[in-house]
Amino acid sequence: MVKAEAVHKSFGALDVLKGIDLEVARGEVMCILGPSGSGKSTFLRCVNHLEQINAGRLWVDGEMVGYRQDGDRLLTLSEKEIAEGRSAIGMVFQRFNLFPHMTAAQNIMLAPMKVRGVGRKEAKQRAGELLEQVGLADRGDTYPAQLSGGQQQRVAIARALAMDPKLMLFDEPTSALDPELVGEVLEVMRALAKGGMTMVVVTHEIGFAKSAADSVVFMDQGVIVESGPPEEVLGNPQHARTKAFLAEVL
Amino acid sequence: MTQPGEGRELPEQIRAVPVRHPGRWVAAVVVGVVFASIGYSFARNPNIQWNIVWERFFSQRIIDGVVLTIELTVVSMLVGVILGVILASMRQSPNPVLRASSWFYIWLFRGTPVYVQILFWFSIAALYSQINIGVPFGGAAIFSFDSNTLITAIVAGFLALSLNEGAYMAEIVRSGIISVDHGQTEAANALGMTRLQTTRYVVLPQAMRVIVPPTGNETINMLKTTSLVSAISITELLYASQKFSSVDFRVIPMLVLASIWYLILTSVLYVCQYYIERRYGRGTARELPPTPRQRVIAFWRNRFPAAEGS
Ligand SMILES: Nc1ncnc2c1ncn2[C@@H]1O[C@H](COP(=O)(O)OP(=O)(O)OP(=O)(O)O)[C@@H](O)[C@H]1O
Ligand SMILES: [Mg+2]
Asked: Which tens digit of pLDDT belongs to each residue from B14-68?
């Protein structure tokens, strides 16, 4: 579903990603761990082209992200094509980024109506189903400011699901939450994973990685240090940097 | 099993004597007397000739002037807001030519007095006697207009006020757009919305909260600025009143008349602004404060709870 080959990304003189190779199969749940500033968010943002990569190749569902191959030339995709590509990838942010001027239901309905041209009635019904799926069936008419952090993040997940994404990206979805609210969000994510959704999750929740991930990637300073099934990377880390990191978060 | 708190008496409500503020009373009385005496001398001043003021207050000429003043305000503000949104979007555009032209427009129109701009548009015929639309750089014209017939005084007035307002609104809209958290744009983009959709459905509605209060001020300013077009003989409120005084030299009553009309119009705008600001405050506060009307109703219900059932 996702394939990265030697992905490089720099901001000016700062090299943030220095050759990332990885592959996420359909239905796989991959957790990315790593210390702050290692480039985890940047990588996720490259996957849906919120950031442009400088070198390497990146595919989502067999299609190159941001470009089209034309013989031996690369053609940049138009704004519309890029937007279309993004619409099939759900993204959940650390700080929720719900639209504060819309109710929970309106947040969920906006993109299907404006991007896909779905009718209001149909969008509303789908929003109701999604809210129920994240355990907020009765909060459709509430504004984000009136919801707790955990509830806001669950609405944000429902908003991303409304576009029927083939891939979900999570960027530290529970890092901004009070500890007692983390569980309810992880629970929704676990259910999603069980349902067969392909997910790439940047997280510091080792427990979640252990129990829900099919594979774990440990990143540091823009490179993948170690990757494999969770029991190997988390249970028996080979690399000193992984060991040091795990010792710190556990 | 008893619930916690159940069966317990409510504690006695606190009824304390509030702190006295004698200083406040003295200040209030002094200020009150000063205002009352000014008001009295004004109201009783025979030079104002209140009878003339009221006699002409609803005369056809004045009403026409009021209507024209409202039209000038509304149209110029509408065009100004639309221009402002366009110019502000151009300022944010990735295209450097669009950015630079927007900057130049704002520089030009904010940098010259609106009074000068009004005179300029009025005298445009002296600059271009013909206005041609067609091949640029002196090529063939497809449409051609005589400036004097196209840009009459009234058109010059509308043009000057609208174009000038566009420059000010552009800065207001831009500050509103900047105030919206970048995460909002990112979330909208991640959902597959284009730049235009993101601006329209996500950024602008939120920017409104920042844009509306200064736009209210702009509208009130515009209402008063329309009086400047009296210089090019447009019979809006001020010029309409001056037409009376140019005949009988009763200058003061006509100025008082115009001022009262301006005050009435600005007061209406105050009320509109209050409700518009409330509308765009949605979602920011957990609960909106009650409107004055709701407050009066609530006060009444508290005062006379018995009236409720009847
Ligand atoms: N738009 C940007 N411009 C310049 N530098 C950036 C930009 N975005 C990220 N960086 C830099 O790139 C580096 C990696 O950032 P990134 O957000 O990917 O780290 P991260 O692994 O997600 O860290 P964290 O756990 O703190 O979220 C950081 O040094 C950051 O300062
Ligand atoms: Mg990050």
From this structure: 888 888 888 889 999 999 999 999 999 888 888 888 888 899 999 999 999 999 9
H-type helices in chain B, by residue range? Answer: 22-44, 50-57, 60-92, 96-111, 114-122, 124-127, 147-150, 153-179, 182-190, 195-197, 204-225, 237-248, 251-280, 292-303
* CA–CA distances in Å: residue B121 to residues A246, B71, B84, B128, B156: 73, 19, 20, 11, 5
Query: Are residues A43 and A17 in contact, defined by beta-carbon separation less than 8 angstroms?
Result: yes
Q: Give first-to-last CA distance, chain A, whole Å.
A: 31
Gap between the Cα atoms of B186 and B164, Å rounded: 34
Report which DSSP code applies to A167: E
The top-level CATH class assigned to B45-133+140-282 is mainly alpha
Report CB contact under 8 Å: A115, B205. no
Q: Which residue is listed with tokens 């105050």? A: B270
Nearest-angstrom CA–CA distance, A194 and B146: 74
CB A175 within 8 A of CB A202: no
Please check whether residue A208 is in contact with residue A2, taking contact to mean a CB–CB distance below 8 angstroms.
Answer: no
Burial B199-222 (b: 16+ CB within 10 A, else e): bebbbbbbbbbbbbebbbebbbbb
Instruction: Tell me which residue in A95, A102, A115 faces B183 most closely, judged by beta carbons.
Output: A95
Task: Please report the DSSP string for B105-161 in residue order.
Answer: HHHHHHHS-HHHHHHHHHTHHHH-SEEEEESTTT--EEEEEEHHHHS-HHHHHHHHH
The predicted structure's pLDDT at residue B304: 73
Contacts of B57 (CB under 8 A, 6+ apart): B257, B260, B261
Indicate whether B295 pLDDT > 90. Answer: no
In whole angstroms, what is the distance from residue B280 CA to residue B179 CA? 14
pLDDT averaged over every residue in chain B: 87
pLDDT at B309: 45
Chain Cα centroid distance, residue B297: 29
Q: Closest Cα partner for A66 from A48, A88, A90?
A: A48
Closest Cα in chain B, distance from residue A90 (Å): 7
Per-residue pLDDT band for B7 (boundaries 50, 70, 90) equals low
Q: Is the C-beta atom of A203 inside 6 A of ligand 1? A: no
pLDDT mean over B155-164: 94
- Answer yes or no: are the C-beta atoms of B153 and B161 closer than 8 Å: no
Whole-angstrom distance, CA of residue B187 vs CA of residue A113: 16
Q: Would the CB of A27 count as within 6 Å of ligand 1?
A: no
Is A21 an interface residue toward B (CB < 8 Å)? no
Q: Is A23 helix (H, G, I), strand (E, B) or coil?
A: strand
CB atoms within 10 A of CB A148: 13
The residues near A240 (Cβ < 8 Å, ≥ 6 apart) are none
Shortest distance between the Cα of A19 and any Cα of chain B, in A, equals: 24
Q: What band does B288 get if pLDDT is binned at 50, 70 and 90?
A: low
